[in-house]
Amino acid sequence: MLNFDLCFVTYHSRRWLPGCLAALANAEYDLRCLHLYFADNASADGTLQQLRQLKESYGDTFGSFTILPQKQNGGFGAACNAASRAGASPFVFFYNVDTEIFPDAFMQLEKMIEQSDDSFAGFELRQFPFEHPKYYDPVTLETGWCSGACMVVRRDVLEKTGGFDETIFMYCEDVDLSWHIRALGYKLRYVPAACTWHHTYTQPDERKPMQLLGVALGDLVLRQKYGSKKQVAQWEKAVRATLEKIDSEVSLKQSLEDGLRRIKRNRRDYRNFYKSQIQNSGFAPCFADENYSFARSGGFYESHPCGAVIPITVIVRTYRRPEVLRLTLESLRWQTYPHFKVIVVEDGVQPVSQPVVQRASEWLDIAYLAANAQWGRCRACNEGVALAQTDYICFLDDDDRFFADHLETMADLIEQNPACGMLCAGSVRSYHTRAADAAFSDPLPSMQNLSREKLTALDFFKENPVPIQAVVFRRDVYRQCGGIDTALNALEDWDLWLRMVCRVSIAVTPKATSVFYVPDDPQQFAKRHLEICRYREIVYQKMEHYQAPVSAQQVFGEFWRPEHHEADILKKAIALQSSNTWRFSHRLRAIAHRWIRCLQHFAGPEDAMLPGRSAVELTMYCERLQGSFCWRLIHSLGTLPQRLKNRKP
Question: Residue 593: which pLDDT band, with cuts at 50, 70 and 90?
């Protein structure tokens, strides 16, 4: 078995330690191979005393149990370095204390490490209940950076980097270390089968003030170390919204100023690192998103390991593209939900994919059907469904991919919505010239999330809101609808969904659990678009016979949203009128109204006449007020001192 040094940073962590240690003690692994190091950042809540008590209870359970009191709180990275230097195991596991590891996590982690060659230097566990939304390659599991909450690094590579950058107090230090590893030519890998609970959020979409501050400052450090001069100059614009939130938190202003001064002191070292380590390394960082990678939708989807056994059949249709098919079957290898079967249907007179299917049978419950004729893509689907024996079925084209949690998420959706006959997930649309040649990158500009919080029949009547691989349906519903229309060579999935939504209810999750590819080449895209346009007319003619019960509320909901209710808009308008910006700009607008007629924007006494106005009038009032020259001028003058202070950090 592999030996791991588990490096923990504690700071007022008393309440988390018992659960974390109990979960580690229940791990299905040789616990003598786990060496625990706790670097405490001068806690004042009794954390050190509790660690000593826990050492008495668990000291003989693990390979070692070492407590490392730090003289002061030097930040997360500095404490991680102190803990890692105390050990000697070949794998260093940086792990938060507000966690509880799954029993089989170390076995799964060891399995992935042994399957990976030495080019993979870092491994990240999957977090429950909220999986980190950053993109990873569904075929290779390669990712752009690893979260420091549950990150394993080969010790020899960690020593080459020098460890975490101790000038970063907290947040983004894991991105920095990950990028340093990648700049040295190594790769990072996600391990979705190795899981840990991470009690980081008390509620979905929680935004912590200290996290906002830390990420904003960390982003500036990353730009100084890994970005061009232009990217450094773009920092204030990139985090403007965050800085405005911090500006409203009086307690954070001093921390922001201290952080900016610290970054300024180290700026020369940061730029020297960029010139010596990054500029000519070929490594290209991603600054376009706060996740430093493309982020899949549904980041705050709460994962629930499915308690029921719900078998699902995945039907893969292919046409003489064995290498593309191989990659798709490889993505199925990493599914975290084990209760599924695969049927590969190969269209065409001379099938060539059987060897690929045979190799995949080593890790998949898979069957192969060769048409030995020109069936067409639609008949291939129907023939596959005819072979399926499970109650639930989904399609996967040979150039599309499932992320590792796709079937797990769909099984959980089925368990929560047993009466629904059609279940839909979010997806990612990726623009590539050839999916088979797509290597891992951080392709923000070429990817787009397609997800919905809810779906009704009306959504399908307007357009096709879900691609073919993002839907799981009941087999009996498919048969009742007559299957896929073999007369269609495009939009066949939309036509099927239209017939289904007329018969059954729909369940949906916004989490993006699959990726599908569309041609990036303009000529290929135009050819594909023209074909779709031609078949859209055919589907339109068929719609004459598709009818579904629709309530008046559903129709009205297409035009009315609760967030546009008069009361909400009125509150916003009153808040604007209570601001200092309004008080000063009101007088200026009155002068402008009197002397410069072209600048009038709700000047005069009618500004105070908010109650009684309609939602439309209130919305227009807010938009015109904030868009007026006078408002923008006063607001700009009010924020000028802070912007000047942050201009040259």
Answer: low
Residue 574 has phi, psi (to 5 degrees) of: -65, -40
Which of 296, 438, 318, 430 is closest to 371 using CA atoms? 318
Q: What is the pLDDT of residues 205-234, one digit of tens each?
A: 666 778 888 888 999 999 999 999 999 998
Give 91's strand partners. 4, 154
157, 154, 94: which is closest to 125 by C-alpha? 94
3-state secondary structure of 629: helix
CA distances from 534 to 79, 394, 459, 489 (A): 63, 26, 21, 10
What are the Cα distances from residue 90, in Å, to 85, 175, 179, 383, 576? 12, 22, 21, 51, 58
Backbone angles phi, psi at 34, to 5 degrees: -105, 120
Asked if residue 43 lies in contact with residue 13, where contact means CB atoms within 8 angstroms, the answer is yes
pTM over 0.85: no
Classify residue 295 by its DSSP letter.
B
The radius of gyration of the chain's CA atoms, rounded to the nearest angstrom, is 28
CA atoms of 278 and 183, how far apart (whole Å): 7
From CA 179, how far away is CA 185, in angstroms rounded? 10
Query: Is residue 51 a contact partner of residue 17, using CB atoms and an 8 Å limit?
Result: yes
